[in-house]
């Protein structure tokens, strides 16, 4: 069964303290792995799509990487405005079902 | 370009009632999907429509049904509401093809069943 597990569930950082979020997955034929940011009471905001192992994408302080079993979201020198829940999801080759992890709640203190 | 818009933003219904949620997909997107998100959890896939036909369904009972219209907007209908149906309902759209770039989500409808 296709599955996504994110760790840690919650992460508290000081402003400027870099860290990484993990997304482990098992999927029958990966069509894409997606990272989203979600603020409380809002819909997920698209960050990145990764398609194959070895691929990397960057945007401002965020960098996403992908292997055959997991993806990392690296946050460099985070700021308080980076505080949010970060969701990882995979799309398999059997239709349009995005399978989400439970998310990592990131809190960045000044 | 306009994003995904959902209506209403909040809704309170009584157990046993029926509800219809609406979604306008992003311009240029031909596929729309619906998700249910409970507090503190990741979104759960309900179903997806591509060119007005359902082309994927999650583990939700038949009382969850939907439609996609020729302009790619969509409705989610839930009959015989139960207390556990209280959640944030999210609509997402994309341009379906060999390479799916990403799904654009709306802000959601917060449904409370009392």
Give a verbal description of the structure:
The complex is a heterodimer of chains A (110) and B (114). Chain A has strands spanning 3-7, 10-14, 19-26, 30-38, 45-50, 56-59, 62-66, 70-75, 84-92, 98-100, 104-109. With 110 residues, chain A is mainly beta. In chain A, a hairpin with a 3-residue loop joins β7 (62-66) and β8 (70-75). In chain A, 36% of the residues are buried. By secondary structure, chain B is mainly β. In chain B, 0% of the residues lie in helices and 50% in strands. Chain B contains no helices and 11 strands. In chain B, the strands form 2 sheets. In chain B, strands 2, 4, 5, 6, 9, 10 and 11 form a 7-stranded mixed β-sheet that branches. In chain B, β7 and β8 (74-78) form a beta hairpin. The model of chain B has no long low-confidence stretch (mean pLDDT 93). At the A-B interface, β4, β5, β9 and β10 of A face β4, β5, β9 and β10 of B.
**Overall SS class of chain B:** mainly beta
Could you give a short account of the major beta sheet of chain A?
A: 6 strands, mixed
Compute the separation of the termini of chain B in Å: 37 Å
In terms of quaternary structure, what is this?
heterodimer
How many runs of DSSP E, i.e. beta strands of chain A? 11
Largest sheet of chain B: 7 strands, mixed
Please report which band the strand proportion of chain A falls in: under 5%, 5-15%, 15-25%, 25-35%, 35-45% or over 45%. over 45%
As residue ranges, the low-confidence spans of chain B are none
- Which spans of chain A have pLDDT < 50 for at least 5 consecutive residues? none
The strand count of chain B comes to 11
Kindly report the average pLDDT value of chain B.
Answer: 93
